[in-house]
Amino acid sequence: MSELENRLNQLVERVDAIRGVFDIPGKIERIAELDQRIQQPDFWDDPQSAQKVMQEVSGLRDKVEVWESLTRRAHDALDLYGMAEDDPSMLTELEAEAAALEAELDQREFDLAMSGPHDGAAAILSIHAGAGGTEAQDWAQMLLRMYLRWAEKHKFKTFITDETEGEEAGIKSVTVEINGPNAYGLLKAEKGVHRLVRLSPFDSNNRRHTSFAKVEVMPVLDEDIEIQIDPKDIEVEVFLSSGAGGQNVQKNQTAVRIRHLPTGMIVTSQNERSQTQNREMAMRVLRGRLYEMEQEKLAAEKAKLKGKIEDANFGSQIRSYVLHPYQMVKDLRTDVETGNTTAVLDGDIDMFIEAWLKSNLHDVDA
User: What is the pLDDT along the chain (366 residues), one digit of tens a residue?
Assistant: First the structure.
């Protein structure tokens, strides 16, 4: 089998697989069902309901047409190859068609992976050092730098809303708001525990240490997204913001800590200029965390229905960063790995994000 024929076969398999994820046959059935409703004499008696039906039909037809076209193009290209083995000009055209199809499928896969209700939103990313004192706190700071560099490479804006420094080095926890196209949709791939293995710079005997840090990612929700928070369910505490000493030390209690009584969640914000701004930011983080908690419950129920055995929380390890005795970063969910640990810790993590998003396409409601 030639390289071109192999590419065309892979394209046919790929387009058929993604077409299945989109459930094109089911959408065609739904269009037929809605068309019958549209033909009813009383269809326009309720204009608001009728308009919703028309919008649904239009959206479904657009999706079906796209995937019917891609399917037809991929299969036609493979059929033409069988007649073009001795025609150099046709082979050149098929090479160009294969490249065009690959590019469009890459984009369609990305669109599908970004089709969640809040994937286009900004993200709130929190990092918490695990047990292990200074070693784990230094690892948390390394992760913070990695994500800030990743955001910088994508030209995303970042703002640290809360940070608790370690006693000797590093950070105990930090919360960052990251603003940019699909920030939450991309960074949701990073939820979980990240493990570091290295020779400790804090160990006088230069022994190997293993450290852990947990990453949480939440969407910045629009105000019209309904997340019920009863004022009776929260306790609000104000305190002096921690920060640089001297002239920059806070003389007013502007930092805010909110405890959500039903869940025990605690969120803080101390880097805004006023108490009001810090309260608003803390409430945004709380709303995001409550939303994520509900999503985790739904995912756990869905997993039970599918017969999967999964950890319901994000406490399980997702990625391992080994700096000694060898150099390797490996994502334990997708098996994607690289020996270029320096680049990864400098923010080059797109390979892991993209692989995880593609591996989860079957769980996307298209």
Answer: 689 899 999 999 989 888 887 788 898 999 999 999 999 999 999 998 999 899 889 988 988 998 899 999 999 999 998 887 778 888 899 999 999 999 998 888 887 788 787 888 899 999 999 987 899 999 999 999 999 999 999 999 999 989 999 888 999 999 999 999 999 999 999 999 999 999 988 887 878 899 999 999 998 887 655 677 888 989 999 888 765 433 444 456 788 999 999 898 899 988 888 888 898 888 888 888 888 888 777 767 655 644 544 433 334 799 999 999 999 999 999 999 999 999 999 999 999 999 999 888 755 554
CB-based burial, 304-334: b 16+ in 10 Å, e otherwise: eeeeeeeeeebeeebbbbbbeeeeebbbebb
Single out the residue of 129, 190, 191 nearest to residue 165, CA to CA: 129
Alpha-helical regions (H) of 114-211: 134-153, 183-187
CB count in 10 Å sphere of residue 47: 9
pTM of the shown model = 0.71
Cα–chain center distance at 73: 31
Rounded CA separation 165/242 (Å)? 9
CB 136 within 8 A of CB 143: no
Buried b (16+ CB within 10 A) or exposed e, 111-120: ebbbebebbe
CB 190 within 8 A of CB 217: yes
Alpha-carbon span 213 to 196, nearest angstrom: 9
Residue 286 vs residues 155, 174, 223, 236: alpha-carbon distances, Å: 26, 15, 13, 12
Instruction: Let me know if 36 is exposed, middle or buried by CB neighbors in 10 A (0-12, 13-18, 19+).
Output: exposed
Instruction: Return the DSSP state at 253.
Output: -
C-beta separation of 167 from 153 below 8 A: no
> What does the block give as tokens for 2?
């030639």
